[in-house]
Amino acid sequence: MADDKDVLRDVWYGRIPACFTLHQDEVTEREAEPYYLLLPRVSYLTLVTDKVKKHFLKVMRAEDVEEMWFEYEGTPLKWHYPIGVLFDLHGSNSILPWSITVHFKNFPERDLLHCLSNSVIEAHFMSSIKEADALKHKSQVVNDMQKKDHKQLWMGLQNDKFDQFWAINRKLMEYSTEDGGFRYIPFRIYQTTGERPFIQKLFRPLSAEGAVHTLGDLLREMYPAAVPQEGEEKRLLVVIHGIEPLLETPVQWLSEHLSHPDNFLHICVVPTPSD
Amino acid sequence: MPISLLWAVDVHGRVYSLSTAGQQWDQCRNAQMEFKRVTAAQQCCWGIACDNSIYLNVHASDLPVRYQEETYENQRWNPVDGFSERLLPSDRWQWSDVSGLQHQPLDGFQLPSSSWEWEGDWFVDENFEGEPTEREGWTYAIDFPANYTKDKKWNSCVRRRHWLRYRRYKAMDMWAKIPSQQTTLPDPFNDISCGGWDISEEPRGRLSLWAVSLQGKVWFREGIYHHNPEGWSWEEVALPGEVVQISCGPGDLVWAVLWEGQFIVREGIGRDCPKGSSWTMVDSPSPDAGAIHVTVGANVVWAVTKDNKVWFRRGVNSHNPCGSGWIHMVGEMLMVNVGLNDQVWGISSEDRAVYFRQGVTPSELSGKTWKTISVPREGERSHSSASSLQSAGCFFTGEVRAPSVTSEAESDPDRALTEGPGLVCSVAPESLVDATTNPSDLPLDTPKPRIPKVTSDSFISELVSDREPGKISKEAQPPPASVPEEEAVPSEESLTEVVLSPSPHSGAPSSQWSNVDLEEGQAPQIQSSLVAESADTCSLSSVVTYTLAMEDPYTNDEHPLWAWVSAGACNVDCHSQLNWFNCSLNTSSLLQSVQSMSLSVTPAQTAAWRKQIFEQLNERTKREIDNFRHYEQAVEQSVWVKKGTMQWWRDWKPHKWIDVQFALEQFSGPDGNKDGILFIYYNLYEEKKYLHAFINEVTILVPVLNDSKHTFAVYTPERTKQRWPIRLAAATELEMHDWLALLSVSCCDSRGIHGAPSKQAIWSITCKGDIFMSEPSPALEAVPYPTPCDQMFWRQVGGHLRTVECNSVGIVWGIGYDHTAWAYTGGYGGGFLQGLASSTDNIYTQTDVKSVFIYENQRWNPVTGYTSRGLPTDRYMWSDASGLHECTKTNTKPPSPQWTWVSDWAIDYSVSGGTDKEGWQYAADFPASYHGYKTMKDFVRRRRWARKCKLTTTGPWQEIPPIPLSDVSILPCAAQSSVEVVPLWAISNKGDVLCRLGVTALTPAGSSWLHVGTDQPFKSVSIGAVSQVWAIARDGSAFYRGAVSSENPAGDSWYHIPSPAKQKLKQVSVGRTSVYAVDENGNLWYRQSVAPSYPQGSFWEHISNNVRKVSVGPLDQVWIIADKVQGSHSLSCGTVCHRLGVQPTEPKGHTWDYGIGGGWDHITVRGNAMDPPRFRMPPLTNSSFSANRSPETVRSTEVNGNAMGC
């Protein structure tokens, strides 16, 4: 039987093959070749697309270049969601590689946050970690860390160093056996439709009676439509890291093993493919 | 820490215990009587019941309490009758003890009390000094007394034989009265205290029991030890005054309180005189209020004065048992009690709750604060608790009935429903049916339970019912006529117990309760399914002798009121995590369910949801990555370097530690595996140089024993051949552990090894107690080209053990230096291997204790006798065993910084060769053979001092309490084995042979021990693949156990196997068919001609010398720990070696292949059942191996540069 530690590696080394093409309206002097890249699922688009930018800048006129942004089939891709979440939410029905359109103009101010440097991503990433630890340990663990530990978490993500990241992150995943789990599970449920971008509420890993809360319990409370009723056909898929865990899976285990590096469990609810 | 119990008595005289792992007080179900006081030791609990007699409750254990009675039959030869009973008038008795002075006929032996039973009849001992005797067991001599031999000679005029009979203590887990003494019966007892188990470990289970009578006299119980738990007799101790209370610590502290309020302290207590010799007076801490209570531990004394103030005595230790002064502590207590590790409990005078003193550490013995223990009592949560249901079910066997009660219960079903809804709704329907049908079927003349009659006593005035007043008034109806007035207060439990264990009551005349104070009372007769109901009723009917005052101060209290607490069995220390505090009903149930959750980790491993995640992640990889591997990675991998400074034991002479720069460069190898290189940069003559090692060539990283530096050794196959590893020392322990963890992960990564070890893993242990395992390659046992032993990769798992044994279904057991048994949990990592190198589940805290020994040496001179002034050529007057190194009490440190001292230096009497009363051993000169008595020729003497130290670490091990072990062996299964229950044999550290029941791959710890009787203590055991069990007795002879099978796991009898001539065997290992044994002189023996039809074999064939230990596996592969192995640079002691050339046709093999070492203590290959790939090769000579592996075993005594420092 494989070990739970292998799940952490599998999650970390999850990759999505992507094909970047420049938007037709922005093609200028000469045709730009598409650019193929294996994107880490747990990272952020703007953090891992330096090569893409370099590639397309070669064919751009300098005056045409504004902030780079990405779009898939008309949907602007939010860089501050992990790449895996974007793919599971928008692209999971597409054939691979995932074809992403690159823009250098007409930044959609209403849909996207600006990201002019990596420090913006770092700030976003660290604030997510802190928020998650506030839920898990009343911020005790993250506040006890030194500045260099915070840096190591970020550098681990930036340089795709699993060991470097987990050497620190394991502390964030600890809890006393007495408690039986975190205080609250840091999670977000994403959906393609609906006005709210995602659902995030307080949810404990154990019930008041001490029973283990499962993914099913979580969804029944937060998103009842995602749990098919008796005899009903499954209309919605619940996807985490591109897989569909069983509803019996304990949320505490999910939070420890299938969280993104930002320490949140990102759950995507997408319609069942019609075919 | 093992689970242990805190004992307490409430104001109603009910005895409760609280488990260190539990969250409720469990009532002692078999206390048929109310108790005044209890005093607990780990193996038993003593108490004074309300009849003022003393009762003993010996806790059941898998090790029976057996006492060996023995006597000798003596005969003399005469020309007419040959050997006959007719002796000369000057001879000894025909039946006598060993000295011949005591007349001891067989029928003169009686059972000492009704708590004992005979195990069998008398039999003749046919084993004489390790050798089997002739059939009748006679040994011969020229005359009495003389030296006996087992052979009859021409001049043998007398003979004798040894008769044995065992009796067994049967009153386990029940309160058995200590028979009153016929002579000098002490007046009724008032206080009792046991302790003294740390004074000396021999004889096993020895206890000091002190008691105080109502008249203020003090009595000491003689002769309590494991085989005689009741002791022999009471001895009165002379006193300077009248004593009211006494306390005896685990060591040599005994304090008592005098009627006038001062203390007396016992002096002169020691190993040879547990009773002590004299009393010294100590004044009460407060001039106004005399002392009323005292309690002592190993190094502390606490006292309570009449004004309920609590006092701590400063400066108490075994050299100064009186201490130096009193310190007033916060809190008002009725009594306090010191338990193990000098932890303190008390009963508050304010609310009569039990308090625990928090923060008591060896450095701060007075602790910090009192914390109340707030756990519910059993049955308090609701009436539907599992236990009450159980007793409910048992109740339905209904020995006794009372129509009047029945009608009452039946007439009021509503009330039953409101009072016990949980009970009613959760009782299974079948049991309800049983309840109504069974009792009527039973014969009317079933024996009636005896219930003790409670005599009047000031204590009894406190024994009032705690029923709520409303309920009492409601139920205050005339009691059933059938209940006699003198009925005691049987609580629910005591009644149910009557039915739970019917044996003592089922009319057997030998009931331990039959004594003058007990009157056969007719129990209230019940025929009802509603247990709570009936119990209520009967206790109601029985309390009529006492005034049920409504204004009773205790009636309305919600929490229990305690009268006495005893922590003598409660093994907690400042690190223990207890769930006893702030535990409301809800949270406790939450905690319990959490516990059960964490315990059910193993089933979760196989849960469907987990499987789904693993499968889907694999699918995801196939779908999203596998076809796109040629794509460019978004983030480029780079080289990662970690640097540090260390010290290195340089390779050239003179060897010394030099400062070096240390760096690990990690990069991704071409196959995707991570790889790395280790660099050591040093300066030689102002020139920068470096040494390097490839991570994928490192075979092991070994922490090395060093009392001042934090050192480890790095081996490669080359360095293993040289017996010269790279030795490094880090500045701090933390730094070393960081490096070891990182290097260990790198090594595993480079070899693609992750997660838990396989079931085939080979396990070994260094003399430091570190545990290593190696995954055997399929070709490890191949013939003729096995994988060379020095290329095996070893990785460490957390924990600290002395012995480890495994088999091929993944069952692994270990034994610590303190003889604690541990079962492997299936995890990996632990200790310093944290984070990625460690599994999250299945890692637990592990502790181990061992002794450090130093020697005090003295030389005799004609003027002053023995003094510590030696000759100039002598060894140090304080030294290690060799005498070469000076080791004084103050400069001797624990073996490594991981260990801390937990005791003071004490004389060790358990040295081979024996000692005199002061621990001295005598000899003609240093170094020589020592003996335990002085002769004219002895000019030097020495004695050994021991000091205990303790280590706390973590690892994938769970304790198997409570029996300490010295050896263990698990049946080696074939690779595809269908064996479900795996036979496991063990030797307790006292030499008992044990057989573990219920061991399976899912429950490796098994369920219980089965004791296998022997006539002498054993030291080694091994079970082979077809259940052939071999064992070695302490006298060095071997035994084969007959008829062991899965149906009869303990076999039927021992067959004596003579040891090789003039050799004493010490260890045995049995593989598929091969039987190997090692003797005390390091010889390895193979048992010839073992066959299924003749499992004992014919004789021992010598295979090799220079062997410390042997492990024979399920393929009959033979691995040993060699004593000394010479390498090209150095010599190593304690080296793993593999027997080459072992084949079914040649089970003895031909040469050794040398593996990792030195400093290895133990290896087990019994998990490796992988059949090697078969080569079809022409038979080769072994030249290819012996040529390039020239090192031969050496017999030189010079030892240098051994890596482990042992």
Describe this structure in words.
Chain A: It comes from Periophthalmus magnuspinnatus. Chain A: One of its GO terms (biological process) is apoptotic process. Chain A: Residues 11-104 form the Autophagy protein ATG5 UblA domain. The complex is a heterodimer of chains A (275) and B (1206). Chain A folds into 2 domains: 14-103, Ubiquitin-like (UB roll); 119-271, Phosphatidylinositol 3-kinase Catalytic Subunit, Chain A, domain 1 (Ubiquitin-like (UB roll)), CATH 3.10.20.90. Helices cover 32% and strands 16% of the residues of chain A. Chain A has helices spanning 4-12, 50-57, 83-91, 118-137, 140-144, 147-158, 162-172, 215-222, 251-257, and strands at residues 15-22, 35-40, 69-72, 75-76, 98-103, 187-191, 198-199, 236-239, 265-271. Chain A has a 5-stranded mixed β-sheet. In chain A, a hairpin with a 6-residue loop joins strand 6 and strand 7 (198-199). The radius of gyration of chain A is 20 Å and the shape is globular. The model of chain A has no long low-confidence stretch (mean pLDDT 86). With 1206 residues, chain B is mostly beta strands. Chain B has 14 helices and 72 strands. The longest helix of chain B has 18 residues, at 733-750. Chains A and B meet through helix 1, strand 1, strand 2 and helix 7 of A and helix 9 and helix 11 of B.
Annotation keywords:
heterodimer, A: 275 residues, alpha+beta, Ubiquitin-like (UB roll), 2 domains, 5-stranded mixed sheet, 4-stranded mixed sheet, 9 helices, 9 strands, globular, B: 1206 residues, mainly beta, 7-stranded antiparallel sheet, 34% strand, disordered C terminus, membrane (chain A), ubl conjugation (chain A)
